[in-house]
Amino acid sequence: MNPTLSMAQGATDTPLIEQTLGDFFDDMAARQGDHEALVSVHEGKRYSYRELRREVDRLASALLGLGLVPGDRVGIWSHNNAPWVLMQLATAKVGIVLVNINPAYRTSELEYALNKVACKALVTMKSFKTSDYVGMLRELAPELSDAAPGALKAARLPHLRTVAWIDAAGAEGELPGLMRFSALHDSGDADDPQVDLIAKTLKASDPINIQFTSGTTGFPKGATLTHRNILNNGFFIGECMRLSPVDRLCIPVPLYHCFGMVLGNLACITHGATIVYPNDGFDPLAVMQTVQDEKCTGLHGVPTMFIAELDHPRFKEFDFSTLRTGIMAGSPCPTEVMKRVVDQMHLREITIAYGMTETSPVSCQSSTDTPLEKRVSTVGTVQPHLEIKIIDPVTGELMPRGSSGEFCTRGYSVMHGYWEDPEKTREAIDAEGWMHTGDLATMDAEGYVNIVGRIKDLVIRGGENIYPREIEEFLYRHPKVQDVQVVGLPDKKYGEELCAWIIAKPGQSVTADEVRKFCKGQIAHYKVPRYIEFVTEFPMTVTGKIQKFKIREAMKHQLGLDEDKTA
To answer: Cβ neighbours of residue 55 under 8 Å, at least 6 residues apart?
Structure first.
């Protein structure tokens, strides 16, 4: 391999795991049954590995009891809790594909996701803060109120048969048409022989998880991941952190993302470590209290989470001395924030990770002994058993080290494909198996990678990836909107915020409040543009191509924003 070109291969001395997730988990539970596996602080629940395995087997049996078979899809629409990880492991155990539904989704997004992959069952929270999940379901499926549990037949959700709601301890009353998750779980048999019989028929290459990622067409695509994809990625992520059974990892990042599900849950399970959930949603005070009370050795988060903890007025009241490692990912980490995390939170061995859902997700990661300046300025080096390269986006030629180009990766982590979308899969993964990420990157002489921009017009707001085209497609549906362009603007708190330039239809008048009202309850809150401007034309090239960079520059000038001094 030419050391002057931007290409690198990961180490292969540790072999890949070729077991299914269920088999690997069973082996870990057999090895250290009494060791604490899961602590859900806000629910007051604790499980040893042996206890967790019994509960997983019971739930797997209950899912089979619903008539589900390997390959069927089951959705989970929830923030972090014990039922989430039970579903993650139980579905894997019997070959059911778990579909992660973003808790920020609203009715139109939920309808699309459930129908796109033909979910037969859905496990959901009843509500969370201002989100009424059951209310949104009833809006889509009014038939739910009259259906016997497990016998739903809804016109707008034709595949869905069963909805179970996660009932908190002491929850009273029943919800017509819905099962309690606790009742569903208890209907199973932890010693059901069918669970093991089915487990023996599964392969590591079987799809086991679907996560929706927005496409430039405006329609979310279902990135489909296998046992082999996510189990190995979780293992090698944990290796970079040097996890072991003595570690206790605090996971405040959402489980519906790979960050929580793979970098959190699976990094722990593959190393016999303890999973610790401080709360269902992010709360800096709950995180700090949990780290102290549970003597956590690891902590995950996006930069905005660490900032919220460091700047909390009660920060100095808490003892962080047990902390050692963790992962910061989701968006670039400011240098000063990383220094404060290392110095003030004792996270001397914190690592940086980079990836995308379609690659299970991590392709590059720093290690516990990566020099601080490299951890701040790069996303680390290539992960084991993977290949990476940086190419000219037009010619496909390898770029010299130090020059920017498109980041591509190949190996076990590349997704099975987009669910029932071979055309989009071929666009993302070329004939040689390389995943084209659309990210612009550089590689230095030592193989450290730096992400410098995006070919795709992606906006990252508080760790959430948003494709402007999806927002544009939605806003086009407003009866008074003729045309719309959405861009990202720099923001101190979230990294980026959305801005929409709208051209109203002739003779029509529309206000920003009308646009926001149109969005409310239909798209996730973080996709609603913060800035809405009404214009009569867009800046264009001679050939009629809209120049989004000119929109961005005009708004930055108007609002007094720049890359160093953000709002």
So the answer is: 47, 86, 185, 190
Cα gap 184→165, rounded to integer Å: 9
pLDDT score of 51 more than 90: yes
Alpha-carbon distance of 435 to 438, in angstroms, equals 9
Q: What is the pLDDT of residues 338-382, one digit of tens each?
A: 889 999 999 999 999 999 999 999 999 999 999 988 988 899 999
Whether pLDDT at 395 is above 90: yes
Report the relative pairing of strands 36-40 and 45-48 from DSSP bridges: antiparallel
Q: Give, in order, the Cα–Cα distances in Å from 194 to each of 39, 49, 68, 83, 189.
A: 29, 21, 12, 21, 10
Query: Looking at the chain, which residues constitute the CATH 3.40.50.980 domain(s)?
Result: 20-203
Q: Which two tokens stand for residue 197?
A: 């019989």
CA-CA distance, 478 to 470, in Å (whole number)?
Answer: 14
CATH of domain 20-203: 3.40.50.980
Joined together, the tokens standing for residue 221 give 């695509």
Closest CA to 505 of 528, 479, 486: 479
- Please count the CA atoms within 13 angstroms of the CA of 83 that sit on its side-chain side: 24
CB 191: neighbour CB atoms within 10 A? 11
Q: CB neighbours of 31 closer than 8 A, spacing ≥ 6? A: 272
What torsion, rounded to 10 degrees, do the Cα atoms 544, 548, 554, 560 define? 180
What is the C-alpha separation between 389 and 397, in angstroms, rounded?
10
In angstroms, how far is the first alpha carbon of the chain from the final one?
Answer: 45
DSSP of 138-173: HHH-GGGGGSPTT----SSSTT--EEEEEPPTT--S
Report residue 215's pLDDT band, with 50, 70 and 90 as the boundaries: very low
Instruction: Give the C-alpha separation, 546 to 485, whole Å.
Output: 9
Residue 123: name the closest of 165, 85, 93 by CA.
Answer: 165
> Which CATH number is associated with domain 465-559?
3.30.300.30
Q: Is beta strand 274-277 parallel, antiparallel or unpaired with respect to 36-40? A: parallel
DSSP summary character for residue 5: B
Whose tokens are 């809790």? That residue is 81
Model-level pTM?
A: 0.85
In angstroms, the CA 52 to CA 406 distance is 42
Distances (CA, A) of 525 to 258, 302, 464, 521: 20, 18, 11, 8
- Residue 45, SS3? strand
Structure token digits, residue 25:
């988990």
Range list of H helices, 299-334: 303-310
What are residue 491's DSSP bridge partners? 495
Which value, to the nearest 10 degrees, does the dihedral of the CA atoms of residues 352, 357, 363, 364 take?
-10
Nearest to 89 by CA among 148, 139, 9, 20: 20
